[in-house]
Amino acid sequence: MSQACPKYRLLRGYTIDPGFSTRLDTMGVNETTYKIRWEEDLLPGPIGEYLEIIDFDPINYCFYEPVDLNARDVLASNGVSPSEGNAKFHQQFVYTVIMQTIENFEKALGRKIIWRSNHKWVNGRLDESQRYVQKLRVYPHGMMEANAFYTTEKVALLFGYFQAANNVQGTNFPGGAVFTCLSPDIIAHETTHAILDSMYPRYMENTNPDVPAFHEAFADIVALLQRFSNPRLLEHQIEQTRGRLDEYNVMGELATQFGQAVETGRGALRSAIGRHDPRTGKWKKMEPDPGAYPRTLEAHDRGAILVATIFEAFMRLYNFRVQDLIRIATQGSGILPQGSIHPDLVRRLAAEASDIASHLLSICIRALDYCPPVDISFGDYLQALITADTDLSPEDNNGYRVALIDAFRAWGIFPERVKTLSVYSLRWSPPDFNKKELSAVEIMAGFIKEDVREISRLTDRKKIMEKYRNVQAKLQLLLMNPEKMQPLTWKRSRLTAKDWTGFLHKIGVEHYSQPIRVKTGDTELEFSANPPLEVHNVKHAFRIGREERQLEQVIISLTQTHRTVKNSGAGFRFRSGCTMVLNIANDEMKLEYIVLKRFDRDRRLPRQAEYQLGTGAGLTVPVSAYADSRDSLQLSFQQLHSH
Amino acid sequence: MPVTANIKMYRVGELGDCFLLCFSQQNQRTHVLIDCGSYWNKKSSVDRMKIIAEDIAKQVKGYQLDVVVGTHQHNDHLSGYVHAEAVFKKIKPRQVWLSWLDDPDNKTARKIGKDFNNYLTRLRLIQKELKSSFYAGTEKIQQNIQHLLGFYGITGAERFNARTEKFPADLPARATGILKTLGKNKPKYLSPGEVFDLPGLGKETVKVYVLGPPREEEFLYKKEPGKGETFDHKLSLHAAQAEKMLTALKKATGSAGVRKAEEPFPFDEPYRESANFKPVEDAYYDKKNEWRQIELDWLNQAEELALWLDGFTNNSSLVLAFELVETGKVLLFAADAQAGNWRSWKEIKWKKKPAGFSWLNLMNNTVLYKAGHHGSHNSTLVEGLENMTHEELVVMIPVEKSDPMVNYGKGWKMPAVNLYKELKKSSRNRIIRMDEGISKAKAWNDLAGKAGGNSLYWEYDVKG
Fold it and tell me: Confidence band (pLDDT; 50, 70, 90) for A172?
């Protein structure tokens, strides 16, 4: 009989940048023990199911000895002990934080993460045999600069190291080596880029100023909320405040520190949340500025606004939730005495904060499944947040949605074409199908039902991916030729080809057999006929909400690419499509929401053309301050992060 | 007594700046030459510079060339002073104006100059190392660096003297050397906040305001606006980074000159033999996964380092504003100043000016704007342009679209699309481009001064 696997692997590591662990007041707290899902057959590297940590240093042209997390001495002492001078610990630590981030995503999404596929073309065709990328590759010492990034071309994370300035600055050790792979914030940030890219590769296309900003902001949000989910760190911070809990100080300073950690040459996040008053030395919260969003166009600065918005929601929730605790502790006065706070109260406050942070993290991640497949805007994201959360936690006892809406309002981020900022009107609307369209949906749902069921039983990620591909291809054929793919059902449904086109139109798929011309600003664009349809995703999800509600869902996303003909608009591409959310209950599959990005010739298309081609009076890429040097149509994190 | 300012933008035929200003009042005239250079140093570039210099001599005949300005150490602004040295020596200008950064008596300037030269030397050496066969596949990086080194007139063929650890002086440095001895009088080294009468005309006729380069070291290093606050000693930091990179490259290529005792970085530990290496090495060298190797990726940094030095040099630009006192109209010559330089103008403490006076007064009254850095994206501060509200505003952009450099790379576009739109809006389409000449716009009729030109230059008169 084989032995049962352990559930978790305990690994020691830092809670915040090691730069802080040499400061006396944070020394105690900066080490913690992480609990990571046990991986069987973990090789030295570590190389596991999801990751391969390859510690190749191209500068010194050598490999550093890989850590074997299954070695007896390592297992017995909860991993290699934290040390900046030991490469093995570095490998262990990136492994730890990335795995933790993956776990958070898988829990919230209710399915397994599968990395972006490798698009290798052989003789004009995608090489299917090399398409599956099982492991994200991680280079903890991949370059010698103050930078870290995710690269889509290599499906890899590269972390840099560099020499600290020779003068004493903050907590730096002058002239010492600084490693970006030792900052949990940076690791979480980069991992999130990789995961987001695996879900929405089209978010790498810079179609409006929110897109590059969203990638950055979302990565920061995940990293920030992960930081706040750590109760030990919070306890320590709350202890330090000596009663000033009514202010935003504790959390704010933690968030500011976070901003310092993830910034490599940019201070956008720091200043969006708050800053230290140079005169008093005290941290001051930045009041939300509703005018900032339309005005701020540079990717990081604009992203910082979204991060600050989520942080604002977090703070509102926290203040609301701890009111009673504070009342109990102060016999109703609300004013804590000077001096240290009772350790019990500290623990309770920290527990509340970390609880809120992990819920908020789940909400933020889950919302991704309710986002459009292309051209996302912050307003879309708010709607996705609200819809996803309403779906899973209909009661909202603790006011998460209200807090989110308030925060978005305070920062002036409003979705387009929404009349009121209420939960009801912010939710994506369920489709209003007529009878014929309903039977079309039925054909579609019935067609993939068996496959989805099969996927839900699979555990091997490669098999899951292959099955996804297979269903996607089948569904694509069905949408193009329902009568051929499902002759019997088709007959029985009595639908005509025209009905089907009508249904496709409802879900954002356009059909035109003649080239069409669209005027934008001072140019006219001509689009080739018969834009191809792509089934981007068919994904299965099984999730549990914070009210213990369970939900089984299928997420389908379709995209269509409208290309301009030669000599029109210099290779301009316009994408449209939709995300469909189907709920599975009692063996029935019901289409609940459609998130549309239409082939909108009146607004979205001219706006994108103006933005990318400079055909109108508005701003063009690169947008900011007529600035940022090298923003381009295709995002590159190496450049986004390096200045 | 009204003053007229005639501005000639010479058509250097490629990326470059050369402006001759002539201020006249009755029969008095003062001539100011701001920069004389072009990017490429080809035979045609040299010939063109000589023709232009001869024309300048012709223009000032009967009067004198009162002031010659060299704004910053880039070839496209200074090359003419080398290529047409003889002509300029013959003209014998009265005085040369340079920025405080060129002042041999200024200690900070000397230190910055030294750091700068070290940095540039290291970059050139890095470029040499990249050419080694060990780094095959870095051609694109080398090309990008070469383009940036081209701004110092560097071709890559220069020989490094291992004993003195120096390359021969680059072209802009030679130009500055020539400029320092060119004038009849000693050169004048200008600092921001200085305000003085333009020589040759009466008192309170034309005032010169010095805006950049900033004195506070900090601003010199800021390329991007509003980002990050701790940029102390960025130049030395970057220079140190370049040094580290160079050492690493040399170690790898086995070049001479690496000290044996070079400390291991970043780890002290010696590398051990271990069976654990196998799975990792197998994964890395797996044929099917070659596309994921990272041998050359870290070298992109060299390009970043080169780009940073380029921004630094642009920010060291001497920025001058000329005010026609009677009407208050201002001509603004921003050289290649990038955001850091512009931002520093807010902090200037003006000498002999009332307390309320600020850079915005100059912006509000600008009627002629020489676009910063050939109209690139980060060389006109939004706040600056927003405040150029004078109804007579005319913009001159020294840009040549046939020069591949103006379209080089993704963000290099000159003029930048968005900025160009804004410039057109603010000036009601009154734009004079070096390549395209005078724009067609009704708004030209609203001006008393006329624009015109010939095959050598475009010109425009500001009526004071």
Answer: very low
Burial of B49 (0-12, 13-18, 19+ CB in 10 A): buried
CA dihedral over A260, A262, A266, A267, signed as positive or negative:
negative
ipTM entry: 0.87
The chain-wide mean pLDDT, for chain A, equals 84
What is the pTM assigned to this prediction? 0.88
Residue A620 in domain: no
Half-sphere exposure of A32 (CA within 13 A, CB side): 21
Whole-number pLDDT of residue A351: 93
**Any idea what DSSP says for residue A205?**
B
Question: 10 Å Cβ neighbour count for B264?
Answer: 10
Range of the domain at A532: 435-601
Q: Is the domain of A408 the same as that of A458?
A: no
Q: In this structure, are residues A41 and A68 in contact, taking their beta carbons and an 8 Å threshold? A: no
Is the same domain home to B124 and B30?
no
Q: Which A residues, 26 through 45, put their C-beta within 8 Å of a C-beta on chain B?
A: 43-45
Number of domains comprising chain A: 3
Cα–Cα dist B177/B164, whole Å: 20
CB contact under 8 A, A144 and B232: no
Work out the number of other CB atoms within 10 angstroms of the CB of residue A382.
Answer: 24
Residue A171: band (very low, low, confident or very high) from pLDDT cuts 50, 70, 90: very low
**Quick count: other Cβ atoms within 10 Å of Cβ B257?**
10
Domain boundary among the residues B309, B344, B365 is at B309
Per residue in B230-269, pLDDT (tens digit) is 233 567 778 888 888 998 888 877 776 555 556 778 888 6
Domain extent for B140:
116-169+231-286+295-309
- Domain of B338, CATH number, reads 3.60.15
B295 to A58: CB separation less than 8 angstroms, yes or no: yes
Chain A interface test: which of B234, B268, B276 (most A C-beta within 10 Å): B276
Shared-domain flag, residues B66 and B145 = no
Helical H segments across A158-290, by residue range: 184-199, 210-228, 231-241, 249-262, 268-273
Residues B212 and B325 in one domain: yes
Q: Are residues B10 and B157 in the same domain?
A: no
* A332 and A399 assigned to the same domain: yes
Cβ distance A144 to B298 less than 8 Å, yes or no, reads: yes
Would the CB atoms of B298 and A66 count as touching at under 8 Å? no
pLDDT at B268: 81
Is A167 an interface residue toward B (CB < 8 Å)? yes
* Contact (Cβ atoms closer than 8 angstroms) between residue A282 and residue A276: yes
The reply to whether A420 falls in a domain is yes
Domains contained in chain B, number: 2
Task: Please indicate whether, in this complex, the C-beta atoms of B265 and A142 are within 8 angstroms of each other.
Answer: no
Locate the chain A residue with the closest alpha carbon to B243: A163
B18-29 mean pLDDT: 95
d(CA A25, CA A41): 40
Report yes or no: A77 and A337 within 8 Å, Cβ to Cβ.
no
Q: Please tell me the distance from the alpha carbon of residue B246 to that of residue B401, in angstroms, as a whole number.
A: 36
Residue B95 CA to chain centroid, in angstroms? Answer: 21
Confirm or reject contact between A83 and chain B (CB < 8 A): no
The answer on A467 and A500 residing in a single domain is: yes
pLDDT band at B284 (very low <50, low <70, confident <90, very high): very high
The confidence score (pLDDT) of residue A565 equals: 85
Partners of B416 on chain A (C-beta within 8 Å) are 622, 626
The alpha carbon of residue A176 is apart from the nearest alpha carbon of chain B, in Å, by 8
